[in-house]
Amino acid sequence: MADLRSNFIGITSPNPFWLASAPPTDKEYNVRRAFQAGWGGVVWKTLGSEGPPVVNVNGPRYGVIHGPDRRVLGINNIELITDRPLEVNLREIKSVKRDYPDRALVISLMVPCDEDSWRDILARIEDTGADGVELNFGCPHGMSERGMGSAVGQVPEYIEMVTRWVKQYSRMPCIVKLTPNITDVRKPAEAAMRGGADAVSLINTINSITSVDLDLFAPQPTIDGKGAHGGYCGPAVKPIALNMVAEIARNPATRGLPISGIGGVTTWRDAAEFMALGAGNVQVCTAAMTYGFKVVQEMITGLRDYLDSHDMDMSDLIGRAVPNVTDWNQLNLNYVTKARIDQDLCIKCGRCYAACEDTSHQAIALKPGRVFEVIEEECVACNLCLDVCPVENCIDMRELAVGEMDLRTGIRRGGYANWTTHPNNPMAVKAAE
Amino acid sequence: MSQARLAPGVVPGRLDPHELAANFVDVAPPLDDHEARVAADRCYFCHDAPCVTACPTSIDIPLFIRQIATGTPDAAAMTIFHANIFGGMCARVCPTETLCEGACVRMEAEGDPVEIGALQRYASDGLMAQPGHPFRRAEPTGKRVAVVGAGPAGLSCAHRLAAKGHDVVVYESRPKPGGLNEYGIASYKAVDGFAQAEVDWLLAIGGIALRHDQRLGRDITLDALRAEYDAVFLAMGLGGVNALRAEGEERGNVLDAVSFIRDLRQASDLTALPVGRDVVVIGGGMTAVDAAVQARLLGAENVAIVYRRDRSQMGASRHEQDHASRSGVRIICNAAPVKVHGNGSVVEVEFAYTAVDPDGGLRLTGDRFRLKADQVFRAIGQRLDGAPDALALDGGKIGVAGPGRTSIPGVWAGGDCAAGGDDLTVTAVAQGRDAAEDIDAHLTGRPVEIPG
Fold it and tell me: The CATH number of the domain where B219 resides is what?
């Protein structure tokens, strides 16, 4: 049976599933319940400087996007960092870690962007027994207006500077949590690496307005008639997070920098995808907030079954898909496929036809008896028909063999060739003879 | 337990009032908001959707379901009512399993269609519960049209004519409007006086005058209507009931199923309604099922439906047959009545098993059996009574061409009295609507809007 024990930058945990720094990890009661449920680790909800704690709004903190049957697809929040006194959090962290020495316990930090503030907070957490720190350079609401969170994460120079301070004043492993609210996520990751970070974690939440109340004409969540942008997370953000993880994993400047993957991990499969793109572990929040801590049990058994069925260790999985993430100009332009409809599985809904006829290439024929057939002479293999078909495996994309005629272009399929050598490319390089 | 439960003969009060109330509740309770959203989400929004093709009124089903899914059920209701002003009743009584839901691609996918009927009821009930009437009449045309029969066909026609600015007078032979919606449908399919509420709501468009106790051939004549009005639409249904042609059918307690259903619908106190202990229903259509099931619900101990052909040929859908079976009704096929035994009133019915000849004809075999019966209901179809002589008939019904045009200029017909229908409410509604469009085009030269 696959071994799920994880060692992430020297921090060990019985499995690679951590709870992200967020409402579920704000206090001892919740974290104990999480550990009892089986979570491998937690990143404690972000601590701020000593002194009067921050305050939260007293109205709704979350806005939600629902799918069918009110399935939660995405949550936006306007909650700030912990609003409980620093001493209380430190006492509780120490207490939990003492009782759960085998679990990872990382402390998330966010203090003003000056050396003294960071030195002070690092000294305060020194004797909690925590395994590491995560620098919250990602929170996009409230704290960023005060020069913290994503306000730091959007300036690579600040990331590098603060990371350097942290490595100077603390012996703990340091994870830098990155904001996605930036144009090129490789830059802050490179800065973190230059500053000496042991790892990066991403993504934090995405600036968002989830919806507008069409009676109040205000964003939701609405606080006394007004709304502010919040941070978006949950299954809806996973594709964005996967890309950012992959960008860092395949960037030569940051190659080998450990990554903790965050962003919509809901099932074992999501976790496995993040790991395949280079994440050494994953952090979860929305799935736990939606279903409770028990979801980790499905993640554990699911990942184990997957690894067993593929005869892989976790280390075989981590980063395995990275070499296959490439740039568009490296894609094989001679790879030709055609949509193919399985008439036995077809339920004759006609969605493929509507999609192709109205919005694509008029490559599906509607024949008597509601029989839908692909017109290979027109099919560009966009695969929209497959995407909108409600029946799994009813439509597939048949790969043409090398040498087989593409009825659309009248050209036989050739071997590998990409845009860099394509005759239509004015910048084309001459193919090797 | 009621003392009368096992009493022989045809007696009232076999069940106590609580049992009766429980038996006659809504057979398919309405969806709530969340259930409707979940059900609506299952619709695939098919291209040229098979459900629309299967609907005699061509309601744009994917559109109205999407309108429900996006939180605009009133818009959904208008999509329904534009095509079918009786969308509320049709949602309750349509054999959806053979129409829209039977055609749903989800049947092919998983054998479980989108709940189109329930969703239609959700949307239409919601709008009908609001004050006022959602349609406005066009500018008056000055034209006047007579409609004979205030059933689904007649009122569908009247509503559309009124909407187009014509003035309509509806002549109805019975004391209440609604036709078979009011008199001919099982109680549990349209509870809480829905049929009358629907008619009241429909008439609120204005421009429709209702005249009761006006029977064609008795109180009014076609010639007089033609002389007084710019057009006439005949939709008086089928007044006569076919005979069993079995010896002894004149014996007591051998009744028409339609009368039983009518009396049940009109009864203010079900404990006063008599029913037999052993009931036999002869026929295979929806009327047979409605009568048999309701006899069970009233407390009859043994109820059997006896049909002369095999099960696949029954007019009642498989869903209806299963409903009967679940209600404890025994269905016997391939048997025809030959003699009603008794002394004054029926005591037994003698049947002969039937066989199909090579030419498709049905013949009685020598194999016979008897069923104990203290009440027998005939449900073997109805026939047209009292059609004006001048009208050309087709198979015993009023012959029509295209959208209900009869052999007499200026006279249209639709619903059960006209040839070519299938005795469904929804078909009657479609025929009334289409005749109204044709009448309007005829009277004004405006183009026809079909459907909706």
Answer: 3.50.50.60
Candidate from B37, B45, B105 with C-beta closest to A348: B105
Task: State the angle between helix axes of B116-128 and B61-69 in degrees (0 to 180), rounded to the nearest 10.
Answer: 70
ipTM above threshold 0.85: no
Judge whether A433 lies within some domain: no
Q: Which residue of A has its CA nearest to B110?
A: A347
Q: Name the minimum distance, in Å, from the CA of B47 to any CA of chain A.
A: 5
- Do B109 and A347 count as a contact with CB atoms less than 8 A apart? yes
Is B268 found in the same domain as B233?
no
Asked if residue B293 lies in contact with residue B327, where contact means CB atoms within 8 angstroms, the answer is yes
Contact A348 B50 (CB under 8 A): yes
- Do residue B109 and residue B53 come from a single domain? yes
| A420-429 tens-digit pLDDT | 999 999 998 7
Q: What is the SS3 assignment for A193?
A: helix
The C-alpha atoms of residue A228 and residue A208 are separated, in whole angstroms, by 9
Within a domain: B386: no
Q: Does B48 reach chain A within 8 Å, measured CB to CB?
A: yes
pLDDT tens per residue across span B165-204? 999 999 999 999 999 999 998 888 999 999 999 999 999 9
Cβ–Cβ below 8 Å for A353 and B47: yes
pLDDT in tens, B249-287: 999 999 999 999 999 999 999 999 999 999 999 999 999
Give the per-residue pLDDT at B19.
94
> What is the C-alpha separation between B75 and B368, in angstroms, rounded?
58
Q: Measure Cα distances from B414 to A160, B172, B174, B395 in Å.
A: 83, 15, 18, 15
Which of A349, A351, A364, A384 to probe the B interface (max B CBs under 10 A)?
A: A349
Tell me which chain B residues have a C-beta less than 8 angstroms from the C-beta of A348.
Answer: 46, 50, 105, 108
B305, B364: one domain: yes
Same domain, A295 and A348: no
Domain-terminating residue out of A272, A303, A324: A324
